[in-house]
Amino acid sequence: MRAFYLFLMVFALCSTGLTAYAQNGCVIVYGPGSAGTVVYTSSKGTTTTCNGQTVENFNTSPAVALAAGCQWIPYPATSPATLRNCIVNGSCGVKNNYTQLCPLDDYVWVLIIMTSGLGFYLFRNRFDHLSPTIQA
C-alpha cells in the first residue's frame, strides 16, 4: 500500500508543473494569429493610446517567458485589434490572465517509469512466496 501512495505522490508532484504558470499581464500581439511569447507582469501605472484607444503601459521587466512547446490560454492573437488594452515599448497587446498550456507528451516517460516500477514491485511481492528457496 505504501508503494501506491508513493506513486500517487510522485504523480501529483509531476502534474503540478502543468498548471503552475498562470500569469496576469500583457502579451504583445503582432498581427492576426501571431502573439508574443512573453507576459509582461508589471504595470507602470500610466496610460497611453494604441489603435485609438486608451491602454495601460507595462514595463519590460519582470516578465514570464512561454515554455518550449506550450501556448498561451486564452490565445491573445485571436483578439481583434479593437480589444488591445495594453502596450509595451510601443507595441500593442492584450492584458489578461494567461496560463501556459503544455502537452502531456513531455511527461509520458515519467508515467511509464513510475507505472513499470509499481508493477514490478507489486508483482514481486505478490508472487514472492511461489519462488523456490535455495538452501545451502
Tell me what you see in this structure.
The chain has 136 residues and is of the alpha+beta class. The protein is 25% helix and 35% strand. It has two helices and nine strands; from the N terminus they run H-E-E-E-E-E-E-E-E-E-H. The strands form two sheets. Strands 1, 2, 4, 5, 7, 8 and 9 form a seven-stranded mixed β-sheet that branches. Strands 3-6 form a two-stranded antiparallel sheet. Strand 8 and strand 9 form a beta hairpin. Helix 1 (2-16) runs antiparallel to helix 2 (108-126). The protein is rod-shaped, with a radius of gyration of 24 Å. The model has no long low-confidence stretch (mean pLDDT 80).
Largest sheet: 7 strands, mixed
* Number of H- or I-type helical stretches: 2
Structural class: alpha+beta
Low-confidence stretches: none
**Radius of gyration from CA coordinates:** 24 Å
Order of helices and strands: HEEEEEEEEEH
State mean pLDDT (0 to 100 scale): 80
Shape: rod-shaped
Q: Give the beta-strand count.
A: 9
State the end-to-end CA separation: 33 Å
Proportion in helices: 25-40%
**Oligomeric nature of the chains:** single chain
Could you outline the blueprint of secondary structure elements for this entry?
Blueprint (H helix, E strand, L loop, with lengths): L1 H15 L6 E9 L2 E2 L2 E3 L2 E8 L2 E6 L4 E3 L5 E3 L12 E3 L2 E11 L6 H19 L10
Helix pairs in contact: 1-2
List the defining traits of the structure above.
rod-shaped; 25% helix; 136 residues; seven-stranded mixed sheet; 2 helices; alpha+beta; two-stranded antiparallel ribbon; single chain
